[in-house]
Specification:
Blueprint (H helix, E strand, L loop, with lengths): L2 H16 L5 E6 L25 H5 L6 E11 L4 H10 L3 E11 L18 E9 L12 E5 L9 H11 L4 E4 L8 E4 L5
Parallel strand pairs: 1-2, 1-6, 3-5, 6-7
Antiparallel strand pairs: 2-4, 3-4
Length: 193
């Protein structure tokens, strides 16, 4: 683990202790997965945008207080499907479904043309997992949505939060490895300032 990653983990732990002690009903996470994407160029690959963590470190990551009945929304990379399910279970959640973000170009007029070793990725996948028996607020949320890809590496579209997560559960909400702040949420992460 790099020194900057250790500092980020310590900062998140400090934020946990300052956060509301009411257990969270929703945990969103887009971990900084470490995988063999040593791509050429100054901007290609996760390691060129932020510090990454091993699957073992993600599995051992200290979580904020969670309700007995809670949802996990865990973003995964296509090359690490089994590892993402391993993280779900290590965090005490049982995978139930997946949500697929079909990425569009920045204009929103055509499909995004992403990276990939065998096929070019035009989507991202989020595992929906539960602990206990959380009750959905509505039952008409689709498992696929479309939105333009962000210009910020790995950032997720606002529609994911407003039209899926916040309609499924009334929270309280916490996001780990957050890249910004969101009203009504506790956002923890090195880039969440």
């Amino acid at each position: 683990m790099t020194k900057s990653r250790e500092i980020a983990i310590l900062a998140m732990r400090a934020a946990h202790s300052r956060a509301s002690r009411k257990p969270y009903g929703v945990l969103c996470a887009d971990p900084p997965w470490m995988f063999g994407d040593k791509l050429p160029g100054p901007k290609r690959g996760a390691q060129k945008h932020y510090d990454v963590m091993s699957v073992e470190d993600i599995c051992r990551f200290e979580l904020p207080p969670l309700a007995d009945d809670a949802y996990l929304f865990l973003w995964r990379v296509s090359a690490m499907v089994e590892e993402a399910y391993q993280v779900c279970r290590a965090w005490g959640f049982e995978p139930k479904s997946e949500i697929v973000w079909r990425k569009l170009s920045s204009t929103g007029k055509k499909e995004h043309f992403g990276m990939g070793w065998h096929v070019r990725a035009a989507h991202e996948t989020c595992i929906l997992a539960v602990r206990g028996k959380p009750k959905p607020l509505v039952r008409n949320i689709r498992s696929t949505f479309e939105a333009a890809a962000s210009r910020q590496h790995s950032a997720k579209p606002e529609i994911f939060y407003t039209d899926i997560v916040e309609k499924l559960s009334d929270g309280p909400y916490v996001e780990l490895f957050a890249r910004g702040q969101r009203p009504g949420w506790t956002c923890l992460g090195k880039e969440s300032r």
